[in-house]
Design a protein that fits this description.
The chain has six helices and seven strands; from the N terminus they run H-E-E-E-H-H-H-H-H-E-E-E-E. By secondary structure, it is an alpha+beta fold. The chain folds into two domains: 118 residues, Sufe protein. Chain: A (Alpha-Beta Complex); 56 residues, no CATH class. Strands 1-2-3 form a three-stranded antiparallel beta sheet. A two-stranded antiparallel ribbon has the order 4-5. Strands 6-7 form a two-stranded antiparallel sheet. Helix 1 packs across helix 2. It starts with a helix and ends in a 14-residue tail after the last strand. 32% of the residues are buried. About 7% of the residues have low confidence.
């Protein structure tokens, strides 16, 4: 089997490997004939793919395809990303052997399923041209302080027990310490 240099590069040095525990959408596809399995995780901000990670179990072509899909989709709007096809991925990789087209080239399908998952959760505002919703539910002051579970003053957003001043994280929507450098929940920098 002969693979292009680009396939070999993406197999040897795959981009965006991993998971997103707080993913806005997850898509998984597999082919029982050859055993390839791909899972894509996406984060959406302002109707664009702000982050993409994947986990792929399969042959070198399947890993290369997943890596290429993640690169092709990063930063695109949701509508642009759903236009990525398995054929366009194979073309971008310089081709795939015919016996690998049916099983290894499932990356675009997994990406599309992740976008479908996101849209199902956050529709209708996830459509092109509209502001994307906050991907995580807003905090509830009746849940208590995330540090000591004490009561939260809903108007001033501070804990009535431990007196920590709280603010909503712009990234995950959870309450976190206003004076901390990073969100307790998602690790995003607090400006």
């Amino acid at each position: 089997m002969i693979y292009s240099d680009k396939v070999m590069e993406h197999f040897s040095n795959p981009r965006n490997v991993g998971t997103l525990p707080d993913a806005d959408g997850v898509g998984q596809v597999g082919n029982p004939v050859c055993g390839d399995m791909m899972t894509f995780y996406i984060k959406v901000k302002d109707n664009r793919l702000a982050d993409i990670k994947f986990q792929t179990f399969g042959c070198g072509a399947a890993i290369a395809v997943s890596s290429m899909v993640s690169e092709m989709a990063m930063g695109k709007t949701l509508d642009e990303a759903v236009k990525i096809t398995n054929d366009s991925v194979a073309e971008e990789l310089g081709g795939l052997p015919k016996n690998k087209m049916h099983c290894s080239n499932l990356g675009a399908d997994a990406l599309h399923k992740a976008i479908e998952d996101y849209r199902a959760k956050y529709a209708p505002a996830a459509r092109e041209g509209e502001a994307a919703p906050v991907a995580h539910p807003a905090h509830k002051t009746d849940q208590g302080c995330p540090y000591c579970e004490g009561p939260i003053d809903g108007t001033k957003e501070f804990c009535g027990k431990c007196r920590v001043e709280l603010e909503e994280c712009a990234h995950c929507g959870e309450l976190t310490n206003k004076n901390a450098e990073e969100c307790t929940h998602c690790g995003a920098r607090i400006s």
